Bifunctional uridylyltransferase/uridylyl-removing enzyme
Amino acid sequence: MNNHPPGPSGSSGQGTENAGGASDLAVSRRQLLSDGAQLDAAALRQACLDLHESWLVAKSTELGITDESGFALVGVGGLGRRELLPYSDLDLVLLYDNVSDDVLQRVADGLWYPLWDANVRLDHSVRTVSGALSVANADLTAALGLLDARHIAGAERLSTELIAGVRRQWRSGIRSRMDELVEMTYARWRRCGRISQRAEPDLKSGRGGLRDVQLLDALGIAQLIDRRGMGHPDAPGGSLDAAYLTLLDVRTELHRVTGRGRDQLLAQFGDEVSAALGVGDRFALARILSNAGRTIAFHSETGLRTAQIALPRRGISALVRRPKRRPLDEGVHEYDGEIVLAREAQPDKDPGLVLRIAAASASTGLPIGAGTLKRLADSAPDLPAPWPREALDDLLVVLLAGPTLLDTIEALDRTGLWGRLLPEWDAVRDLPPRDVSHKWTVDRHIVETVVNAAPLTTRVARSDLLAIGALLHDIGKGRGVDHCVLGADLVIPIGERLGLSPQDVGTLSAMVRHHLLLPITASRGDLNDPNVIQSVADALGGDPQLLELLAALAEADSKATGPGVWSDWKASLMADLVRRCRLVMAGEPLPQAEPTTPHYLSLAADHGVHVEIKPADGERSHVVMVAPDERGLVSKAAAVLALNSLRIHSATVNVHQGVAIAEFVVSPLFGSPPAAELLRQQFVGGLHGDIDVLGMLEKRDIDAASSAQARAGEIQAGAPLTRSTAPPRILWLDCLAPGQLIVEVRAMDRVGLLALLAQALERAGADIAWAKVNTFGSTAADVFCMSVPAEIDNAQDNVAKHLLAVLGASADAVVHELVGD
């Protein structure tokens, strides 16, 4: 809209003529806000609307704005939607047709000056119908505003022509404007954050706020979504209309309490607003707001995607961009930029499908389709207790994905699926923070901690425990007791339900119990006092692994709290504390080869090539590959498994009397594992050079990386693919055997990584003596013991250089550590 600056109050004859009208309006407004204390929010909005609209109609009649005058007064914004708040702007468009400039000036001044004199916030413009349509065609914000246009006074034919023209123009032009609309929406979301997870939310512009409902109204007018169905009480994610009314009532009371047109609900106004609404204290209000914001955000996100998919395709794009289904996991497909169920999927018979869908969404950055979420919510059975190992792996993939897990968990939570996976989440959902240093609600803080823990996973030996510990560290909040003590008790049955070992459950419980110990000691204790250091070491039972996990968790927790909570100063104190604690703790035992079972030793006795595959745990299989030891055997064995779409979860490689025995625990990406004879044929072909298994794997790895990059470029504007950024980590470990080196590689896992790492060691001239491999969700921790010929100079640097080529990182981006000095 074009704002014409007001002239001096009472200047010119026009100002004097309208002074009385302005005074009457100002008095009426003051009286309404003074006497309207007994009105609820909806009644107050209606009273404000009646007051201003009746004044506008009377003033228009006084100025000669009648049905035959060539003028029409149109309300937009809150006035157009019939939801005028006490201190909202008055958005007006004065339409004219075939009137002289003098008459136009007189009528416009006669409207605007009294409103300015009454201190009414005014957003106004003077247009012909064609001029207004031209502005709407060129300015997306103006177009969205005019979709709410409503006739107030004057020539109704002009108002009808504008309203019909804007809507017709909007429907016909939506295809060319969708990209701009999406980018504008995501930019606003990034700027204002989510209402449901902010301690002081922006009710109007935040993600899940009032503007999002108006966005959905616009998409409904374009006939791209079922806007009416979203308001139904049984709609997936909740009723959009009920949530919108909740936010509108809160914003109305915020205006009344503050006496200003505020959109952000600051904590200082929370108690007054909640009292006016009769909902308890500001913490109760925060949970109500969060729930409403989640509902609106869910509908706006799914509605925006639905609208994009529903856009008609024309010309070449209709042929080129035909959506195709791409399988990602058992029962899981990508289709047209969303994660959906495969046609043959049976969610009512597949308890692990929810987490496979979630893992695919988090790892690709693609949203889960609304229909898929509804079908899972309606029919997916609960996971058995303890969980199958595959389900825990999929949960770890979600937790270690980095920022993409935010939308994945939010989608599951909004449809009730996350609460079924973790019933203890109900107590922290939408829970407002009690500490002013916290930026987020408790549930969002927890998820932010998991996000901040993902880049730290290569700092620890057990990335799975770090991820789960980050998820559960504040699970004891919201119950009125010490959340560390209660949380430590709560995670014991949770860990057992997830299928963790008793030792891991104990570590997890200790992480939750002591997750504040290091930051409190570092910032408040005397680190030069041996008793302080000894007390920390004793509290942790002298466990260096627990110390390592708590250090990473404390950093992630601090970064997720709010600006300035984690600083270089705090990091230096924490590092000093951890270093001093390590000095008083006993060292861990050195890694060594795993023992080999007698059966596999008997297979090695004939120095032939043997491959066995047997069921292991759940969907996993145990694959053993035995052959005379030679350079390249480990990489080729792992390459054969990768080429058959077998995900390696753990592995051990030993050499006995010149024969290599490689044991793998694997699971197929799709379907059933291949036959042992097929694996043996490929393994033999790879060993003899008849099949270039490593060359085939390298090509597939490059193609997969290119495909992922291309998909990232296709993701909708404002929602880039943002995976975890944990840097690779190379650690050199102490080795008691002379002439051998032991290296541990921690990195983000991918299919074929073990084969490519083993090949890198072989290219560096190293002979692998034994190996121990573990994969935790999407991170790998692989230990290799190798011998390197004496004539190779700088053996460690040479090995690291070849490993870096596989890890895709520069030397200065990888952390090298010597462990055991």
Q: What stands out?
A: DSSP finds 33 helices and 16 strands in the chain. The mean pLDDT is 86. The two ends are 70 Å apart (CA to CA).
